[in-house]
Protein backbone atom coordinates (compact mmCIF):
# COMPACT_ATOMS: atom_id res chain seq x y z
CA UNK A 1 0.00 0.00 0.00
CA UNK A 2 1.38 3.42 -0.98
CA UNK A 3 2.05 5.81 1.87
CA UNK A 4 0.11 9.07 1.93
CA UNK A 5 1.83 12.45 1.74
CA UNK A 6 0.74 13.28 5.31
CA UNK A 7 2.30 10.04 6.59
CA UNK A 8 5.56 10.75 4.75
CA UNK A 9 5.68 14.25 6.26
CA UNK A 10 5.04 12.76 9.70
CA UNK A 11 7.84 10.22 9.22
CA UNK A 12 10.22 12.98 8.10
CA UNK A 13 9.57 15.21 11.12
CA UNK A 14 9.55 12.19 13.43
CA UNK A 15 12.98 11.09 12.16
CA UNK A 16 14.28 14.68 12.40
CA UNK A 17 13.05 14.96 16.00
CA UNK A 18 14.62 11.62 16.95
CA UNK A 19 17.95 12.65 15.41
CA UNK A 20 17.81 15.95 17.31
CA UNK A 21 17.16 14.14 20.60
CA UNK A 22 19.98 11.68 19.91
CA UNK A 23 22.38 14.54 19.14
CA UNK A 24 21.41 16.50 22.26
CA UNK A 25 21.83 13.34 24.36
CA UNK A 26 25.18 12.33 22.91
CA UNK A 27 26.73 15.80 22.58
CA UNK A 28 27.83 16.21 26.24
CA UNK A 29 29.45 12.77 26.30
CA UNK A 30 31.21 13.24 22.95
CA UNK A 31 32.44 16.64 24.11
CA UNK A 32 33.86 15.08 27.28
CA UNK A 33 35.64 12.40 25.25
CA UNK A 34 37.04 15.05 22.86
CA UNK A 35 38.32 17.17 25.77
CA UNK A 36 40.00 14.15 27.36
CA UNK A 37 42.17 13.74 24.22
CA UNK A 38 42.83 17.47 23.60
CA UNK A 39 45.75 19.70 24.55
CA UNK A 40 45.62 22.24 27.34
CA UNK A 41 45.89 25.25 25.00
CA UNK A 42 42.86 24.23 22.94
CA UNK A 43 40.79 23.38 26.03
CA UNK A 44 41.55 26.74 27.68
CA UNK A 45 40.84 28.58 24.39
CA UNK A 46 37.48 26.79 24.06
CA UNK A 47 38.34 25.25 20.68
CA UNK A 48 37.24 21.71 21.58
CA UNK A 49 33.81 20.65 20.39
CA UNK A 50 33.22 17.13 19.07
CA UNK A 51 36.69 16.40 17.69
CA UNK A 52 39.89 16.42 19.81
CA UNK A 53 42.13 19.40 19.11
CA UNK A 54 45.90 19.06 19.57
CA UNK A 55 45.72 15.33 20.28
CA UNK A 56 47.21 14.64 23.71
CA UNK A 57 47.11 11.59 26.00
CA UNK A 58 49.48 12.78 28.74
CA UNK A 59 46.74 12.70 31.37
CA UNK A 60 45.74 9.15 30.42
CA UNK A 61 49.41 8.13 30.48
CA UNK A 62 50.03 9.64 33.93
CA UNK A 63 46.85 8.23 35.46
CA UNK A 64 47.25 4.73 34.00
CA UNK A 65 50.95 4.49 34.86
CA UNK A 66 50.15 4.96 38.53
CA UNK A 67 50.03 1.58 40.34
CA UNK A 68 47.61 3.01 42.87
CA UNK A 69 45.10 3.61 40.06
CA UNK A 70 45.05 -0.09 39.13
CA UNK A 71 44.93 -1.15 42.79
CA UNK A 72 41.89 1.04 43.36
CA UNK A 73 40.37 -0.10 40.05
CA UNK A 74 40.66 -3.74 41.23
CA UNK A 75 39.03 -2.75 44.54
CA UNK A 76 36.11 -1.20 42.67
CA UNK A 77 35.57 -4.37 40.63
CA UNK A 78 35.58 -6.48 43.82
CA UNK A 79 33.24 -4.10 45.68
CA UNK A 80 30.87 -3.97 42.70
CA UNK A 81 30.72 -7.74 42.15
CA UNK A 82 30.39 -8.65 45.85
CA UNK A 83 28.03 -5.77 46.63
CA UNK A 84 25.77 -6.48 43.66
CA UNK A 85 25.57 -10.20 44.50
CA UNK A 86 24.68 -9.47 48.14
CA UNK A 87 22.12 -6.83 47.15
CA UNK A 88 20.43 -9.13 44.62
CA UNK A 89 20.19 -12.03 47.08
CA UNK A 90 18.87 -9.92 49.97
CA UNK A 91 16.43 -7.95 47.81
CA UNK A 92 15.03 -11.15 46.28
CA UNK A 93 14.70 -12.84 49.69
CA UNK A 94 12.68 -9.86 50.98
CA UNK A 95 10.70 -8.96 47.85
CA UNK A 96 9.41 -12.47 47.15
CA UNK A 97 7.60 -13.07 50.48
CA UNK A 98 6.29 -9.48 50.46
CA UNK A 99 4.68 -10.17 47.07
CA UNK A 100 2.42 -12.79 48.72
CA UNK A 101 -0.85 -11.27 49.94
CA UNK A 102 -1.34 -14.19 52.35
CA UNK A 103 1.78 -13.20 54.33
CA UNK A 104 0.80 -12.20 57.87
CA UNK A 105 1.82 -8.65 58.78
CA UNK A 106 2.63 -7.91 55.14
CA UNK A 107 1.27 -4.36 55.17
CA UNK A 108 3.10 -3.51 58.41
CA UNK A 109 6.41 -4.85 57.04
CA UNK A 110 5.95 -2.90 53.78
CA UNK A 111 5.14 0.27 55.75
CA UNK A 112 8.22 -0.30 57.93
CA UNK A 113 10.41 -0.81 54.85
CA UNK A 114 9.04 2.28 53.08
CA UNK A 115 9.59 4.30 56.27
CA UNK A 116 13.34 3.72 55.92
CA UNK A 117 13.13 5.21 52.44
CA UNK A 118 12.38 8.65 53.89
CA UNK A 119 14.00 8.53 57.34
CA UNK A 120 17.34 7.15 58.53
CA UNK A 121 19.60 7.32 61.54
CA UNK A 122 21.77 10.13 60.21
CA UNK A 123 25.42 10.40 59.33
CA UNK A 124 27.01 10.30 62.80
CA UNK A 125 24.90 7.39 64.20
CA UNK A 126 25.67 5.41 61.04
CA UNK A 127 29.37 6.12 61.44
CA UNK A 128 29.30 5.06 65.09
CA UNK A 129 27.38 1.88 64.20
CA UNK A 130 29.75 0.87 61.39
CA UNK A 131 32.78 1.56 63.61
CA UNK A 132 31.35 -0.39 66.57
CA UNK A 133 30.69 -3.37 64.29
CA UNK A 134 34.36 -3.35 63.28
CA UNK A 135 33.56 -2.69 59.61
CA UNK A 136 36.06 0.19 59.30
CA UNK A 137 38.68 -0.41 56.58
CA UNK A 138 36.84 -3.53 55.39
CA UNK A 139 34.74 -4.28 52.32
CA UNK A 140 31.65 -4.68 54.54
CA UNK A 141 31.56 -0.95 55.23
CA UNK A 142 30.92 -0.51 51.50
CA UNK A 143 28.54 -3.35 50.62
CA UNK A 144 26.42 -3.89 53.77
CA UNK A 145 24.89 -0.47 54.70
CA UNK A 146 23.26 0.04 51.29
CA UNK A 147 22.65 -3.62 50.50
CA UNK A 148 18.89 -3.18 49.97
CA UNK A 149 17.46 -0.25 48.04
CA UNK A 150 13.79 0.25 48.95
CA UNK A 151 13.04 1.60 45.47
CA UNK A 152 14.51 -1.49 43.80
CA UNK A 153 12.81 -3.73 46.35
CA UNK A 154 9.36 -2.33 45.52
CA UNK A 155 9.94 -2.82 41.78
CA UNK A 156 10.94 -6.45 42.39
CA UNK A 157 7.93 -7.02 44.65
CA UNK A 158 5.58 -5.69 41.97
CA UNK A 159 7.20 -7.91 39.35
CA UNK A 160 6.80 -11.03 41.54
CA UNK A 161 3.12 -10.14 42.12
CA UNK A 162 2.51 -10.39 38.37
CA UNK A 163 3.67 -14.02 38.18
CA UNK A 164 0.52 -16.21 37.97
CA UNK A 165 -0.34 -18.01 41.20
CA UNK A 166 -1.38 -21.04 39.14
CA UNK A 167 2.27 -21.79 38.33
CA UNK A 168 3.16 -22.01 42.00
CA UNK A 169 0.05 -24.06 42.78
CA UNK A 170 1.03 -26.55 40.06
CA UNK A 171 4.53 -26.77 41.54
CA UNK A 172 3.05 -27.44 45.01
CA UNK A 173 0.92 -30.24 43.57
CA UNK A 174 4.11 -31.73 42.09
CA UNK A 175 5.66 -31.73 45.56
CA UNK A 176 7.82 -28.61 45.42
CA UNK A 177 8.34 -26.51 48.56
CA UNK A 178 8.71 -22.72 48.88
CA UNK A 179 12.44 -22.69 48.14
CA UNK A 180 11.99 -25.02 45.17
CA UNK A 181 9.29 -22.75 43.74
CA UNK A 182 11.52 -19.70 44.17
CA UNK A 183 14.62 -21.32 42.63
CA UNK A 184 13.00 -23.41 39.87
CA UNK A 185 9.88 -21.40 38.93
CA UNK A 186 10.09 -17.77 40.02
CA UNK A 187 13.73 -16.86 39.41
CA UNK A 188 13.94 -18.37 35.87
CA UNK A 189 10.86 -16.29 34.97
CA UNK A 190 12.38 -13.18 36.54
CA UNK A 191 15.46 -12.70 34.36
CA UNK A 192 14.34 -9.22 33.13
CA UNK A 193 13.88 -7.80 36.64
CA UNK A 194 17.05 -9.51 37.95
CA UNK A 195 19.09 -8.04 35.06
CA UNK A 196 17.60 -4.61 35.71
CA UNK A 197 18.34 -4.76 39.42
CA UNK A 198 21.84 -6.02 38.70
CA UNK A 199 22.45 -2.95 36.54
CA UNK A 200 20.98 -0.57 39.13
CA UNK A 201 23.04 -2.01 42.00
CA UNK A 202 26.21 -2.37 39.92
CA UNK A 203 26.10 1.27 38.78
CA UNK A 204 25.45 2.41 42.35
CA UNK A 205 28.41 0.45 43.74
CA UNK A 206 30.66 1.43 40.84
CA UNK A 207 30.09 5.16 41.32
CA UNK A 208 30.08 5.07 45.13
CA UNK A 209 32.86 7.00 46.87
CA UNK A 210 31.31 8.57 49.99
CA UNK A 211 31.31 5.40 52.18
CA UNK A 212 35.01 4.93 51.38
CA UNK A 213 35.60 8.60 52.27
CA UNK A 214 33.94 8.03 55.66
CA UNK A 215 35.13 4.59 56.70
CA UNK A 216 38.48 4.04 54.95
CA UNK A 217 41.82 5.50 56.03
CA UNK A 218 44.00 3.09 54.01
CA UNK A 219 44.51 4.33 50.42
CA UNK A 220 45.11 0.75 49.25
CA UNK A 221 41.43 0.04 49.97
CA UNK A 222 40.00 3.05 48.11
CA UNK A 223 37.72 2.47 45.11
CA UNK A 224 38.77 4.09 41.85
CA UNK A 225 36.08 6.77 42.17
CA UNK A 226 37.77 7.89 45.41
CA UNK A 227 41.17 7.89 43.73
CA UNK A 228 39.90 10.02 40.84
CA UNK A 229 37.98 12.28 43.20
CA UNK A 230 41.21 12.96 45.08
CA UNK A 231 42.99 13.65 41.80
CA UNK A 232 40.43 16.28 40.89
CA UNK A 233 40.74 17.84 44.34
CA UNK A 234 44.49 18.05 44.25
CA UNK A 235 46.56 16.72 41.34
CA UNK A 236 49.89 17.32 43.01
CA UNK A 237 49.09 15.58 46.28
CA UNK A 238 47.46 12.48 44.78
CA UNK A 239 49.92 11.31 42.16
CA UNK A 240 52.26 8.88 43.80
CA UNK A 241 54.81 9.03 40.99
CA UNK A 242 56.11 12.41 42.05
CA UNK A 243 57.78 12.91 38.66
CA UNK A 244 55.23 15.10 36.99
CA UNK A 245 56.61 18.21 35.32
CA UNK A 246 54.93 21.63 35.40
CA UNK A 247 53.83 21.33 31.76
CA UNK A 248 52.31 17.93 32.41
CA UNK A 249 50.64 19.29 35.53
CA UNK A 250 48.94 22.05 33.53
CA UNK A 251 47.84 19.51 30.94
CA UNK A 252 46.48 17.17 33.64
CA UNK A 253 44.63 19.92 35.48
CA UNK A 254 43.00 21.07 32.23
CA UNK A 255 41.35 17.76 31.33
CA UNK A 256 41.52 15.60 34.45
CA UNK A 257 37.74 15.82 34.94
CA UNK A 258 36.99 14.59 31.41
CA UNK A 259 39.60 11.81 31.66
CA UNK A 260 38.18 10.58 34.98
CA UNK A 261 34.65 10.59 33.58
CA UNK A 262 35.72 8.52 30.57
CA UNK A 263 37.69 6.03 32.68
CA UNK A 264 34.88 5.51 35.20
CA UNK A 265 31.99 5.25 32.75
CA UNK A 266 33.74 3.00 30.22
CA UNK A 267 33.10 -0.38 31.97
CA UNK A 268 29.41 0.42 32.46
CA UNK A 269 29.11 1.37 28.78
CA UNK A 270 30.65 -1.99 27.81
CA UNK A 271 28.18 -3.95 29.95
CA UNK A 272 24.99 -1.98 29.23
CA UNK A 273 24.34 -3.15 25.60
CA UNK A 274 24.26 -6.80 26.70
CA UNK A 275 21.49 -6.29 29.27
CA UNK A 276 19.59 -3.44 27.58
CA UNK A 277 16.78 -5.74 26.36
CA UNK A 278 16.23 -7.01 29.93
CA UNK A 279 16.53 -3.49 31.35
CA UNK A 280 13.59 -2.02 29.40
CA UNK A 281 11.22 -4.97 29.93
CA UNK A 282 12.20 -5.33 33.60
CA UNK A 283 11.44 -1.72 34.50
CA UNK A 284 8.18 -1.70 32.53
CA UNK A 285 6.88 -4.96 34.00
CA UNK A 286 7.93 -4.01 37.52
CA UNK A 287 6.35 -0.58 37.54
CA UNK A 288 2.95 -1.06 35.89
CA UNK A 289 1.31 -1.58 39.30
CA UNK A 290 1.81 0.46 42.44
Please characterize this protein's 3D structure:
The chain has 290 residues and is an all-alpha fold. It has 15 helices and no strands. Helix 1 packs antiparallel against helix 15, helix 4 (67-98) crosses helix 8 (150-161) and helix 9 packs across helix 10. It is flat. The model has no long low-confidence stretch (mean pLDDT 81).
- The global form is flat
Structural class, from helix and strand content? mainly alpha
User: Proportion of β residues?
Assistant: under 5%
Number of strands: 0
The major β-sheet equals: none
The tally of helices reads 15
Which stretches are low in confidence, meaning pLDDT under 50 for 5 or more residues running?
A: none
* Rg for CA atoms: 24 Å
Please provide the ordered H/E string of secondary-structure elements.
HHHHHHHHHHHHHHH
Fraction of residues in H or I helices: over 70%
Distance between termini?
A: 42 Å
Give the overall pLDDT as a whole number.
81
Amino acid sequence: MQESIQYRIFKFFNAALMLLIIFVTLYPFLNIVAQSFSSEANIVAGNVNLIPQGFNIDTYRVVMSDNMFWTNYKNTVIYTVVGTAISLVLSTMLAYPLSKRRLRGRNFIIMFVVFTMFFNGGLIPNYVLISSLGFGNTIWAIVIPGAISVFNLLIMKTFFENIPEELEEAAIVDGSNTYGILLKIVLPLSKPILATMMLFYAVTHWNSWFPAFLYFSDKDLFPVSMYLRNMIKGVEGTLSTGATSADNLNQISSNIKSVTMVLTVLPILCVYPYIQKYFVSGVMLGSVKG
